[in-house]
Amino acid sequence: KRLILIGPPGSGKGTQSPVIKDEYCLCHLATGDMLRAAVAAKTPLGVKAKEAMDKGELVSDDLVVGIIDEAMKKQSCQKGFILDGFPRTVVQAQKLDEMLQKQGTKIDKVLNFAIDDAVLEERITGRWIHPSSGRTYHTKFAPPKVPGVDDVTGEPLIQRKDDTPAVLKSRLEAFHRQTEPVIDYYGSKGILANLPAEKPPKEVTSEVQKVLSS
Ligand code: AP5
Ligand code: ZN
């Protein structure tokens, strides 16, 4: 399967991805994770991306299309992939179509994590992540067994620099202005599925499974 997960910050894309990935043996390609790794490693790409990310703005289309193109070539995604956080502009969506067309493939389904803005601040400000595995926790909704510590490895959890109320505001603005048109783009292609993303994580997972088995 070739899937796209689309939705505002905190809607649950990164929480559902590992579940879907394991169930269907897919690669998880998250542009946000790749960019954060590049920023941490201070690569030329990371240096270019950092300023926009810190402000909650989108990084340039050329830059993210480049990293996705590279990631798709590098990974052996025979059974398919999950794109998490990409495409986020109509230009990115068009570039992706071109890339896939060259490979003779196409996107099967776009999962739209539909949710009200009002609940996102609590989700974002309570989030803790285990960077190397991508596991996500929440102080209230999905607490780790020991506060600040990953359940599996015992390693420390961190908070994202852009997970503040002020930066969330610009991330939401970017979502409504630049990414919502992408939802319509896939709607008109007839491959869009809307998910009730405000439900508890396990219920969202069942909804995803329903869509993917239909
Ligand atoms: P990115 O990393 O993609 O961040 P985002 O889109 O803002 O999304 P989040 O990761 O914040 O949300 P999520 O949906 O994954 O939420 P999660 O599942 O963790 O991008 C970061 C930045 O990189 C961008 O601002 C931009 O600068 C740049 N960038 C990335 N891609 C780009 C692109 N294509 N083009 C240009 N720039 C790009 O859940 C959040 C919290 O809620 C967790 O604590 C979780 O435990 C909890 N939770 C999850 N589900 C539920 C539930 N159902 N009920 C209760 N709590 C829940
Ligand atoms: Zn995420």
Structural commentary:
By secondary structure, the chain is an alpha/beta fold. It has a single domain, classed as Rossmann fold (3-Layer(aba) Sandwich). Helix content is 49%, strand content 15%. The protein is built from eight helices and seven strands, in the order E-H-E-H-H-H-E-H-E-H-E-E-H-E-H. The protein has helices at 13-24, 31-40, 44-55, 61-74, 90-103, 120-125, 165-187, 201-213, and strands at 2-6, 27-30, 81-84, 109-114, 127-130, 135-138, 192-196. The longest helix is centred in the last third of the chain and has 23 residues, at 165-187. The protein is globular, with a radius of gyration of 16 Å. The two termini are 13 Å apart. Bound molecules: BIS(adenosine)-5'-pentaphosphate (AP5) and zinc ion. BIS(adenosine)-5'-pentaphosphate binds at residues 7, 9-15, 31-32, 35, 52-53, 56-59, 64, 85-86, 88, 92, 123, 126-127, 136-138, 141-142, 171, 200-201, 204.
Structure keywords:
214 residues; alpha/beta; Rossmann fold; 5-stranded parallel beta sheet; globular; binds BIS(adenosine)-5'-pentaphosphate; binds zinc ion
Kindly summarize this structure in a few lines.
With 214 residues, this protein is of the alpha/beta class.
